[in-house]
Every structure is written in structure tokens, then in C-alpha cells.
Design goal:
The complex is a heterodimer of chains A (115) and B (115). With 115 residues, chain A is mainly β. Chain A contains no helices and ten strands. In chain A, the strands form two sheets. In chain A, strands 2, 4, 5, 8, 9 and 10 form a six-stranded mixed β-sheet that branches. Chain B starts with a strand and ends with a strand. In chain B, strand 5 and strand 6 form a beta hairpin. The chains are: A mainly beta (115), B mainly beta (115).
Chain lengths: 115, 115
Amino acid sequence: GAGVSQSPSNKVTEKGKDVELRCDPISGHTALYWYRQSLGQGLEFLIYFQGNSAPDKSGLPSDRFSAERTGGSVSTLTIQRTQQEDSAVYLCASSLGGHLNTEAFFGQGTRLTVV
Amino acid sequence: AQSVAQPEDQVNVAEGNPLTVKCTYSVSGNPYLFWYVQYPNRGLQFLLKYITGDNLVKGSYGFEAEFNKSQTSFHLKKPSALVSDSALYFCAVNFGGGATNKLIFGTGTLLAVQP
């Protein structure tokens, strides 16, 4: 596609339910990132995929959070047993090979509300 | 701890006047520095970056930023503001000097340009 696509754009879920957030990166981009943006705070790094390398999961806030990237393309971020503090905008980004030497393109985000 | 600070939640400037959006970071090795912009209802967009070389970096939409190692700052500037520059601006830093692709973002500064 023309840009990074995320779905759904909005998700309201009940506390304790599991949710899956999807990211379609730009075709050919080998690097994919997930960030979380909470109201009044900056972007919080969650996880980073680069090609076939083991992902950098150092930003995942708890073991309720997991992500996978199938076939080096589409990525799914899963939050199990959601809590109200998980409410935020979840942003996905992709780049040709990491932030350092290439521009990172962000999706519009998924706004997650846990009630 | 590694951190990025944007000391101003909001900056107000009249159209045609110069603007500055401030960013400072904690001291750690050779940081890579970035600015992103988030327009209303749109995803984050890359503006410019400093990796090495000239301290003054020029980016998109007439913006520039100056890396000041002694002051650990990377302030964003533009000589003449436009109403269309009104948006949320994020400073981001990679403290790994290339060893990691994790970016740490500031909390953002809302720029409001009055006509």
C-alpha cells in the first residue's frame, strides 16, 4: 500500500478481554516498530522487528503484551487480559532498515479504550 | 536514566515570526537525534535528523535544528512560522549510537501559530 495501515482505527473492549491490533507496513520495509502514545505523554517504545533477527522486546510493559510478524510483513500486537491502564493509541511504524539511516513512516494508530 | 525533555507543553507564535521548539536530552555517548511532527488526525511524520557532521541540520517544510553537544540540546527552529505549521512536535533520541534502533521520544510540544 501507499503507507502504513493499522486496523482497527478504534477499539473499545471490556477489562479482562484480549485484543489484537494489526499493522500492515509499507511493502519492502524490513523494519517494523510498535509504540504506545498515552495522553500527555510521549511515545513509548514497545517492540522492534528487523528482518529475520530476533525482535527487540525490551519495551513490552508486561507479559500480557506480545507481538509477532508473519512472513516479514504484517504484524499483530496482542494484549491479553486488558486493563484500563492499557488505554492508549498504539502506533506502528516501518522503515527500510531502522530509524538511523532511513525515514520511519508511521500509521494512523489504533485508539484502544478499555472500559 | 536516558531521557528526552521537551520543557514546553505549548509554544505560541505569530505568523511570520521565528519559532523555536526546545529539546534537551540526558548525556550518554553519541546520540542520534530526530524531530517528528504530528498534524491533527494524521500520523507522525519525520522532519529531520542529526547523525553526525554539521551541527545545523535542515529538514522538511523549512525547519532546521541545531545540535549543541555542550548543552545537550537539539532545538527545532524555523525563520518564519506559518499557520499551517501548527501541530504537535516530538523530539526523539537514540542513545545507542547505532547499536540499537530504539528511539526515546519526548512528551511533545504543541505549536500554535496565530494568523
